[in-house]
Amino acid sequence: MPATLTDPAHAPADVAALRDRAHQLRRLMMTMTRGKGEGYIAQGLGIADCLAVLYFHELRHDPADPEWADRDRFLLSTGHYSIAMYAALAAAGYLDEAELPTYGLNGSRLPMSTFDVTPGIEIVGGSLGHGLGQAVGMALGQRLDGRPSRVFCELSDGELDEGSTWESAMGGATFGCDNLVALIDCNGIQADGPVTVAIEPVADKFTAFGWDTHEVDGNDVAALTTALAACRERDGRPKAIVMRTTPGHGVPTLVARPRAHFVRVTDEEWESFMDELEANRDH
Ligand SMILES: Cc1ncc(C[n+]2csc(CCOP(=O)(O)OP(=O)(O)O)c2C)c(N)n1
Fold this sequence. Notes:
With 283 residues, the chain is of the alpha/beta class. It has helices at residues 15-36, 41-58, 82-92, 131-144, 163-174, 202-208, 221-230, 252-255, 267-279, and strands spanning 38-39, 73-76, 151-156, 180-186, 189-190, 193-194, 212-217, 239-244, 263-264. It has one domain (15-279): Rossmann fold (3-Layer(aba) Sandwich). Strands 2-3-4-8-7 form a five-stranded parallel β-sheet, sandwiched between helices. Strands 1-9 form a two-stranded antiparallel sheet. It has a two-stranded antiparallel ribbon with strand order 5-6. The protein has nine helices and nine strands. The model has no long low-confidence stretch (mean pLDDT 93). The structure holds thiamine diphosphate. Thiamine diphosphate binds next to strand 5.
């Protein structure tokens, strides 16, 4: 077996270490936002726990061999959450941390919305509502090729407004893709403010579409590891984890911002946000 970072079949979750990783990812994201002066930092802070658990516990992957055919795939459907991906990819060894401050700058390999120029990025992002359909196709492809790989797809509550997401949900269930895990980031916001489309009850809807569904506090590392462990069962049903996350998690001033979709950060704010992050770190 190649040198994977983790092998969930053998490694029990080290929750304290994973919380430290999530904190590391949040620090890296803050550094990136400082370099650019702006970014989708609130969503990134919200999803840091999920990415820490995936890249340092659940996914079978090998940064020394990013194209390893039997790797698990992680698809980030919300391309604008790229800041969180770059932090995770740097922490995992796909990127050099020194490259992170180029986030969003002209000529950078780390564009504000994911593109195929970045090592470790599986799909191009930007146009929302397409990740789950690609994930279903990849999951089918892995199965047809007889590979053990699973496919994990993050998507947002905003993408639940898209018909293509629900077509994909039907497809995943119809084809019995039990090698597919959808991670739905329900952070309660969309571009202009709170989610207003009647997407709830999200978990009941996925269950009704034939998915094995779990619902967790997406900022609770222990709960995420438990839900992901349950999703390893191969019972013919695709898996969905509805994650209730808080945009800006760890930085109360950001959590309290009424419009946190896209945040501009001055140098002074950056300093105080970093202090808040240290003071509110999960242990
Ligand atoms: C198909 C499509 N429509 C609109 C947009 C513009 N857009 C970019 S981010 C965003 C917000 C979507 O909300 P959500 O996906 O829940 O993300 P979050 O609020 O957590 O950033 C929108 C509408 C887009 N990128 N793609």
